[in-house]
Design goal:
42% of the residues lie in helices and 17% in strands. By secondary structure, it is of the alpha/beta class. The strands form 2 sheets. Strands 2-1-3-4-5 form a 5-stranded parallel β-sheet, with helices on both faces.
Length: 288
């Protein structure tokens, strides 16, 4: 079973439609149960032809499936053939594809890249692996974030911006402030989704800048998420960050998992793409 942290992460999948294409009834049932547990909206199709029918009908109705979980090893039309057909169809080309495979064959990796497969998983897939793949896919639907990075170190600036490009398909727009005073001015002038604030900045440190932002919000309203960054985040600086009004504090050098977890927790996930015509999760099997 997934742990509490995984259950909390699954909130980002709430209401997300997904089409499962697999010719094996047992596999469809297992996958449907997993996806439903995360409160996604799964529909299952018995084989490639049925899957393409579902995709085209949903697209014609103006409510395309944003995400497809596709088995590679199917008779008549295998997963690669289905993926090729999806990529050839303009109305389906933006669909995010994940694949399940029983084993890797020579040339498969190249085909995954050519077809833009977001992830491929070995069967039988573990629940935590599928959850991680789904969360990664869901981040593809997040619009680009606008982030203020308050950091005076050029090296740290490059590290954080590199991590953001790796974590999000659509890289965020990052504005850099060299000190706390610049951060305070920028947040009063422009709109940001998030602030990453080094706590030890010149002229005005991150603690004072965060406190000033919170004081201003008492007059203007709103709440801008602020994540502090400190070398000793677990040795006292974290408490100082929270006292100054920051929402969280992460350690430097910044670690990808810690940064991602903080952002996902503080910046609300976008609304799920519109549901397909079937608004309630249920098992669906189509035969030709």
């Amino acid at each position: 079973p997934v742990d509490r942290q995984a259950d909390a992460s699954a909130v980002h999948l709430l209401g997300l439609p997904v089409l499962v294409v697999d010719d094996n009834a047992t596999n469809r049932l297992i996958l449907h149960e997993m996806l439903s547990r995360w409160r996604m909206l799964p529909v299952t199709a018995n084989g490639g032809a049925a899957g393409l029918t579902w995709l085209r009908q949903a697209a014609s109705a103006g409510k395309p499936f944003p995400l497809v979980l596709l088995d590679v090893d199917m008779p008549e039309m295998d997963g690669f053939q289905v993926a090729e057909e999806i990529r050839r169809s303009p109305e389906l080309a933006a669909t995010v594809l994940l694949m399940l495979t029983s084993g890797s064959r020579h040339g498969d990796s190249a085909r995954y890249r050519e077809l833009g497969i977001k992830a491929y998983l070995m069967k039988p897939v573990a629940e935590y692996e599928l959850l991680d793949a789904m969360l990664t896919a869901a981040r593809s639907f997040r619009p680009p974030l606008t982030i203020l990075l308050a950091e005076d170190s050029l090296v740290n600036q490059r590290v954080v911006m590199g991590l953001m490009r790796r974590l999000y398909k659509q890289g965020p727009h990052v504005v850099v402030a060299q000190n706390g005073a610049e951060a305070l001015e920028a947040t009063g002038r422009d709109k940001f989704d998030l602030v990453l604030m080094d706590v030890w900045l010149p002229e005005m440190d991150g603690f004072k800048a965060a406190a000033a932002i919170r004081q201003r919000e008492q007059q203007t309203g709103g709440h801008l998420p602020i994540i502090g960054m400190a070398k000793d985040a677990m040795k006292g600086d974290r408490e100082r960050c929270l006292e100054a009004g920051m929402d969280d504090c992460i350690s430097q050098p910044v670690q990808p998992d810690e940064l991602l977890a903080a952002i996902e927790r503080l910046v609300p996930a976008p609304a799920a793409p519109p549901a397909h015509p079937m608004s309630r999760p249920r098992m669906v099997t189509q035969h030709r």
